Amino acid sequence: MLALVDANSFYASCHQIFRPELEGKPIIVLSNRDGNVVARSAQAKALGIKMGQPFFETRELVDQHDVVVFSSNYELYGDISSRLMSLLTQFAPDVEVYSIDEAFLQLEEYTGIYPSYQGLGLSIRESMKQWLRLPVGVGIGPTKTLAKVANRLAKIKPELNGVCVLDSQEAIDEALWGFPIEDVWGVGGKSVSKLKKQGIRTAYQLREVNDDWIQRVMTVNGLRLVHELRGMPCKLLDVNPPPRKAICTEPGFGKVIPDLDTITDALTVHLSRICEKLRKQESLCGTVTVWLRTNPHRRTPGNFLPAKQYSNSVTVRLPHPTSSTLEIIKYAASGLKAIFKFGYNYQRVGIMLTDLVPADYRQMGVFTQGPDERLIRLSAVIDKVNKRYGQDKLRLASQMYNPEWPMKPSYLSPRYTTRWEDILEAH
């Protein structure tokens, strides 16, 4: 049996941990630069605030219902997530971290410690509430897909008290009978349309389809999904996930920017961040892709006609894999210069690192040398200094060209668990 533990409204709940007076109040969390809503508490959802909705569209609701607003605080979320995953290993050592707020647990060998799966689920839920003040839902089933179904039911059915166990055929049949096909894990929008045209609207109906037919409609992945709904495990627990195959970022500027120098500054900032992630997972990158685009929804001030649009991208293969920001920025900046066109107001610049290989990978060519080892070591030292003394204490000279450029979140909460100056004081 597998358990899926999923934190309820994780981003909003992280703020409630240190602000208990916010419990029961509507909370929304905004994206980078406070542009869109990226997380909502249950009370904010009830007000009709939608995921991804622009913040300015919610202003009236925020004022009317005293909605509490926070900027994204990923440093806080990451630390709380680490604590959650660490605590879950006290219930089962085999834990697969599926996302920042979700984890699968293998339960078979540890059921004797608890009176029942229901008792184990309640123990996890109560412990997370006591140790972290974090509300979680627990779904238990014989496969990952059925555990997902159980977790979903645990969240939407208050009578289950946050724990749903599918440990018998009768319980599985009852759960799948009315479970909408669009809520099944792994069924995308196009597949939903195809299935509904065939009259398949619930997970129960999907489970009963012919194997050959579902493989034709949804490929082998659809067949695996149907087998999982039948209780046959096809998606195994992955406690040691492989490193990422690509790292990318594309935050907006917060305003339109027409000049190359400021965009190059933004590119340098983004590249510095993702190179830190590259080194953290002990990889080198062999290819860098840069893209640039305007805002497709922007209208020209004055006449309100659609603004002229432009977007382009360039991919540069490096002469040798490296993790040095100093080396990669040369190629990224050259790529940006090649695709930049004067006369446009740009909204975003994005960058992606691909062809990732392990950090000890070295292959010299006939006409190329390997990476500059001194620069790789220098980048590692910069990471250590910045981790100890704060982000960007050491940075490239081309970074922070414009002091108005960096993100300035207006509703940022303290980083209670990772900054000495933000630790709560007890009087």
From TrEMBL:
Keywords: DNA damage, DNA repair, SOS mutagenesis, SOS response. InterPro entries: DNA/RNA_pol_sf, DNA_pol_Y-fam_lit_finger_sf, DNA_pol_Y-fam_little_finger, DNA_polymerase-Y, DUF4113, Rev_trsase/Diguanyl_cyclase, UmuC. CDD domains: PolY_Pol_V_umuC. One of its GO terms (cellular component) is cytosol. The keyword DNA repair applies. PANTHER family: DNA REPAIR POLYMERASE UMUC / TRANSFERASE FAMILY MEMBER, PROTEIN UMUC. Belongs to the DNA polymerase type-Y family. This is DNA polymerase V subunit UmuC.
